[in-house]
Amino acid sequence: MTGKVYLIGAGPGDPELLTLKAYRLLKQADVVLYDRLVGKEIIELIPESAEKMYVGKAKSLHSLPQEEINSLLAAKAKEGHMVVRLKGGDPFIFGRGGEELEELIEEGVPFEVVPGVTAAAGCAAYAGIPLTHRDYAQSVRFLTGHLKDGTTDLPWEELVHPAQTLVIYMGLTGLKDISQSLIRFGMSPSMPVAIVEKGTTSEQRVFTSTIQDVYGVSIENEAKSPALLIIGEVVTLQKKLEWYGKY
Ligand code: SAH
């Protein structure tokens, strides 16, 4: 009898941001495949009896190629197991969740998807930066700053738009290019920017600066991945609304 695969978002780090559904399914799992970005405390919730498999990837250091993860999921389910595929944040936001499901469909393996708190929501909340605000931003855009052939390839013109917040995932490596390009396409050099490092965890650090200075600030503070960039006027609220680790 074929088992089932649960593609589950684990949220950005704080284990209490797991959904009740994610928690319940994790506790029932026979096999758990997890990524690098899934928090340590969440891994500790996996039952002793379950087979734990780390398939995560650090940048350009893939411990298992995507195709192999896809087939492993299908194979484990076909052995009759209840398989949990745990991903950082939300599985459908820069998570390749779609690719894994396509393979399951081809293999005739049943599945369910459980959403998670994406890094944008988690980091914004724990940094004290509302992504929208009636006075500052009526829209928010999620982008990946992941480099293709060593350069970032983003629709710069559309990004320099009033009353819009930009949230850039995987933006640290390309930060110099990203900040220079935004200014070149007309963004004010004084546009506020926040870098949120290891958001929602006990090691969270938040650095606020401007698009002109953000690269220097990241170097000075040795900002490390995982880090999220939030760009927009809403970042000015951080000073006032910051709460995490404060009260
Ligand atoms: N599916 C995930 C995103 C995976 S892409 C989600 O929905 O959140 C990986 C990128 O997410 C990282 O490079 C970083 O930009 C961001 N990220 C994930 N967890 C984070 C965290 N705790 N703090 C800051 N950024 C994080």
UniProtKB/TrEMBL annotation:
InterPro entries: 4pyrrol_Mease, 4pyrrol_Methylase_sf, 4pyrrole_Mease_sub1, 4pyrrole_Mease_sub2, CobA/CysG_C, Siro_Cobalamin_biosynth, Uropor_MeTrfase_CS. Its EC number is 2.1.1.107. Residues 4-214 form the Tetrapyrrole methylase domain. GO terms for molecular function: lyase activity; oxidoreductase activity; uroporphyrin-III C-methyltransferase activity. SUPFAM superfamilies: Tetrapyrrole methylase (SSF53790). It holds the Pfam family TP_methylase. Keywords: Cobalamin biosynthesis, Lyase, Methyltransferase, Multifunctional enzyme, Oxidoreductase, Porphyrin biosynthesis, S-adenosyl-L-methionine, Transferase. CDD domains: SUMT. It is an enzyme of class 2 (transferase). Pathway: Cofactor biosynthesis; adenosylcobalamin biosynthesis; precorrin-2 from uroporphyrinogen III: step 1/1; Porphyrin-containing compound metabolism; siroheme biosynthesis; precorrin-2 from uroporphyrinogen III: step 1/1. The keyword Nucleus does not apply. The keyword Transferase applies. GO terms for biological process: cobalamin biosynthetic process; methylation; siroheme biosynthetic process. Belongs to the precorrin methyltransferase family. This is uroporphyrinogen-III C-methyltransferase. It comes from Marinomonas arctica.
